From TrEMBL:
Compartments reported by the entry: Lysosome membrane
Keywords: Lysosome, Membrane, Transmembrane, Transmembrane helix, Transport
TM stretches of this protein: 66-88, 95-116, 128-148, 155-179, 185-206, 262-283, 303-321, 328-346, 366-384, 405-424, 436-454
Biased composition (Polar residues): 488-501
Function description: Lysosomal dipeptide uniporter that selectively exports lysine, arginine or histidine-containing dipeptides with a net positive charge from the lysosome lumen into the cytosol. Could play a role in a specific type of protein O-glycosylation indirectly regulating macrophages migration and tissue invasion. Also essential for liver homeostasis.
Composition skew (Basic and acidic residues), residue ranges: 222-245, 526-536
Gene Ontology molecular function: any one: transmembrane transporter activity
GO cellular component entries: lysosomal membrane
Catalysed reactions, as listed in the record: L-alanyl-L-lysine(out) = L-alanyl-L-lysine(in); L-lysyl-L-alanine(out) = L-lysyl-L-alanine(in); L-lysyl-L-lysine(out) = L-lysyl-L-lysine(in); L-histidyl-L-alpha-amino acid(out) = L-histidyl-L-alpha-amino acid(in)
Family: Belongs to the major facilitator superfamily.
Protein name in UniProt: Lysosomal dipeptide transporter MFSD1
Region called Disordered, residue ranges: 220-253, 467-536
């Protein structure tokens, strides 16, 4: 099936109708390949979180050292998004995505070797290399923006996130069960290495299909446009002698990425993702320490947010698609507010009560409620990211740059908050201060989103008022022009010489006619008098 698709895409000359048909037939395959290209990053990215206690005991490290494994992953990803643009321009879309998936595979290999050799520094090196692959999501969203219409993107992103979250939920459920069954840490991470190899193969097929259908037609279209522009410029130079300033003004200006609306989104997603990225690595340890769960039960409960998010993202995608673009900002603020409430709920909850004697402590199952709400907020928050950026950035050529900048901001927030949360936990020996810290970081985007909604509403009202004023002014101008035209018509009629001459001639003829009639009347009177005299 895959070879048939590859042979089918070897055509070089494609018209618009053929491209549309190919896109329509290959869309579901593109969605699956886009998701599977990120399976390795999704499976291995948080694979250490359910086994936090086991890794700390095996490697003889503390919680700050464990969280440093996640912080250094974000550190490496600070530089990669800035290099993506130049790499894509020099080597192409295909080789850039293949390079990122290769980093994912090599990083996981070093991490598994470090666990086998009990070498903490090799663990750090493996996580640093692995963090370079976090930019795979940039290519996922960029490719889907080329293959689908803007109205279809919310549902498509929901399907994509559904498959990715399912893989992460499988990791959380299987990790502790596998360790309890085998007693080996390193072998489980070698399984993750195999998953990374599968993602590398999917990335190859994904980029090959994308280059065959989209990029070839875009290159031909850009060449035709450049030829048309050159011909038009030559015609203009032959007909008119234009200045260089006019020619520069004729060229279209590129859209700026760092617009005001994009900056709002950048700050909101930086603070929101910092909490999400930092919360998941500590969730299993939180459930074991505060609420007395075993390692297997903690892994099952910790997978609830991923399971809920995996099934909720397609539903949210279709819901967002029906509600329209005008409600995106409100739903984003709602998602951050929901995450804020979950963290406040954790601060108000009581820990599991230890029992007396040898009786096992019963876990506090009320922790499932805020964890489930966190999964809903996370699903809505992530589903809105792609459609919001697509709404804000109208020029699709700026999409990789916009997504890269946002990815860097997310990594900065997640890197610092993960390390700070571990430091607060070690200093206070409690998770209450950590939850308060998370609540503060989610309160900031919630307040900012509320201000953003007010700003957009004022902007829409001002645009409506301008439209009404323009319509009224256009109507008044039409009335004034009609009055001017009627006045000109009257003046032209009054001042026209032909009309005056005709009126004078008519008056003269009337006077002459009246004079003639009077003379006739006088002559008749004289004749009648003479005849009477003769009779007498």
């Amino acid at each position: 099936m895959m070879q048939h698709n590859m042979l089918y895409l070897r055509q070089q000359s494609l018209n618009d109708q053929q491209v549309h048909i190919k896109k329509k037939n290959l869309r579901m395959l593109i969605v699956f390949l886009s998701a599977s290209a990120n399976f390795g990053n999704a499976f291995c990215g948080n694979s250490a979180a359910p086994l936090q206690r086991e890794i700390q005991n095996d490697m003889n490290i503390i919680e700050t050292d464990f969280n440093l494994l996640f912080s250094i992953r974000g550190l490496s990803n600070l530089f990669m998004p800035f290099l993506i643009g130049t790499i894509v321009e020099k080597f192409g879309f295909k080789y850039c995505l293949m390079l990122l998936c290769t980093f994912c595979t090599i990083g996981q290999m070093f991490f598994a070797i470090g666990l086998s050799l009990h070498n903490y520094h090799m663990l750090l090196m493996g996580r640093f290399i692995f963090g370079l692959s976090d930019s795979v999501s940039i290519f996922q969203q960029t490719i889907l923006c080329y293959w689908f219409e803007p109205t279809q993107l919310p549902f498509v992103f929901g399907i994509l996130l559904f498959m990715v979250k399912i893989v992460r939920a499988i990791n959380d459920n299987v990790a502790s069960v596998y360790f309890n069954a085998t007693g080996s840490l390193a072998s489980y991470f070698w399984i993750g290495f195999v998953v990374c190899l599968g993602s590398l193969i999917s990335a190859f097929y994904l980029t090959t299909i994308h280059e065959s259908v989209c990029e070839s037609t875009q290159s031909n279209a850009t060449r035709e446009k450049e030829q048309e522009l050159k011909q038009n410029q030559q015609k203009d130079l032959e007909s008119q002698n234009k200045d260089s300033e006019e020619s520069s003004n004729a060229t279209p200006k590129k859209e700026k990425v760092l617009k005001e609306d994009y900056v709002y989104l950048l700050i909101m997603y930086m603070f929101g993702f910092s909490v999400i990225i930092s919360f998941y690595p500590n969730l299993s340890c939180l459930l074991q320490e505060r609420f007395a769960y075993s390692n297997e039960d903690a892994g099952h409960v910790a997978s609830l947010p991923y399971l809920i998010a995996s099934f909720a993202t397609p539903l949210f995608g279709s819901l967002i698609q029906k509600m329209g673009e005008s409600q995106y900002e409100f739903l984003l603020t709602l998602s951050t507010g929901l995450i804020f409430l979950t963290q406040m709920h954790f601060t108000l909850m009581s820990d599991a009560i230890p029992t007396i004697g040898n009786v096992k402590t019963e876990p506090n199952n009320m922790a499932i409620i805020p964890i489930s709400l966190f999964g809903i907020g996370h699903a809505l928050f992530v589903t809105l990211q792609g459609p919001l950026i697509n709404k804000t950035i109208t020029d699709k050529s700026n999409m990789p740059k916009a997504l890269s900048i946002m990815k860097v901001a997310e990594n900065i927030g997640g890197m610092f908050l993960t390390f700070i949360a571990a430091y607060v936990k070690v200093q206070t020996n409690s998770f209450i201060g950590v939850h308060m810290l998370y609540a503060l970081f989610t309160l900031i985007p919630t307040v900012l989103g509320y201000h953003f909604i007010i700003k957009l509403n004022r902007k829409m009202e001002n645009e409506k008022q301008k439209k009404t004023k323009d319509a009224i002014s256009d109507g008044n101008n039409d009335d004034i022009e009609l009055e001017k035209q009627s006045l000109k018509a009257k003046q032209s009629l009054e001042n026209s010489p032909s009309v005056n001459d005709n009126s004078d001639e008519e008056i003269k003829t009337e006077i002459s006619i009246s004079d003639s009639t009077e003379m006739d009347c006088i002559s008749e009177d004289d004749t009648s008098k003479k005849s009477e005299k003769n009779r007498d």
